[in-house]
Design goal:
Two copies of one chain form a homodimer. Chain A has 130 residues and is mostly helical. Chain A folds into two domains: 61 residues, Multidrug-efflux Transporter Regulator, Chain: A, Domain 2, CATH 1.10.1660; 53 residues. Chain A has five helices and two strands; from the N terminus they run ααββααα. Chain A has a two-stranded antiparallel sheet. In chain A, a hairpin with a 2-residue loop joins β1 and β2. At the A-B interface, α5 of A face α3 and α5 of B. The structure holds a DNA duplex (30 and 30 nucleotides).
DNA sequence: AGCGAAGTTGACGTGCACGTCACCGTAACG
DNA sequence: CGTTACGGTGACGTGCACGTCAACTTCGCT
């Protein structure tokens, strides 16, 4: 139970994506499954990366941005010279994620208020709080 | 200082968007500036909506999703029958925003760890913590 | 050997969110 | 009165992230 690789279909079922999507990500160099002849075999590393890709997408990052971030998780393989650049990129990304979270918190609070307001209207009260 | 309306250019400068974008949003019925002859005049309401639109975009919502959410902030103008539907939509959206925030928190934590790891590598330590 | 299911590579199509360009109106300025 | 600036309306173009379809291999059976 060490070289647990998955076929493209197993990947699709596991992550709810289409084969087209996986091949597309590979073309964009986000994934690099092993080839057994022609067939693709996805390793644990590929699964980890895909998970990060899908998460990144939910946060509104482009595939290109995600590609650059993914390098951080493979930092062992990298040249020293590259690492510093990647770290800068990651720190920037981290900043914008923190900002995004703060904004998100604010938006959640606002929306919560608006819903309460709407529920009030439904309950027959007027908009005037007094 | 009550009917503070803005021209399209003032809007563009204030929100850092192009005229094309504002006209596009209008075509999609996200904005509805007053017309003085042909010219558009953006009211306080338009500015509020645009702010919400841009925020929504940063969270990865589509313009169509945003359009439906915007209705919640104009709930006074609506039919009772519509309000309930809009509220449901808003509650769903709120749920997914909360989920998104939790995920974002997790991602921030992970990325923070990875950065620390990378910094360790730069400092000359090996990946092996022991 | 034959067959179907699964996988592969192009190549073209699609929806979204605008960008770009050509052309028109009009209001202001020298 | 010409022209420059700002704004308007189509209409077509573009980048991204895939969807769709045709035309193969390649297994794994029977």
């Amino acid at each position: 139970m060490s070289e647990q690789t998955m076929t493209i279909r197993e990947m699709c079922d596991a992550f709810d994506v289409t084969p087209r999507t996986l091949r597309f990500y590979e073309a964009k160099e986000l994934l690099s499954p092993i080839r057994a002849g022609q067939k693709r075999h996805y390793t644990r590393r590929d699964r980890g990366r895909l998970k990060l890709i899908l998460r990144g997408k939910r946060f509104g990052f482009s595939l290109e941005e995600i590609r650059q971030l993914l390098d951080l998780y493979d930092i062992d393989d990298q040249q020293q010279t590259q690492i510093s650049r990647t770290l800068d990129l990651a720190r920037n990304r981290l900043d914008s994620m923190r900002q995004q979270r703060d904004e998100l918190d604010a938006a959640i609070a606002e929306l919560t208020d608006q819903i309460a307001l709407g529920e009030g209207v439904l309950a027959g009260k007027t908009t005037q709080t007094a």
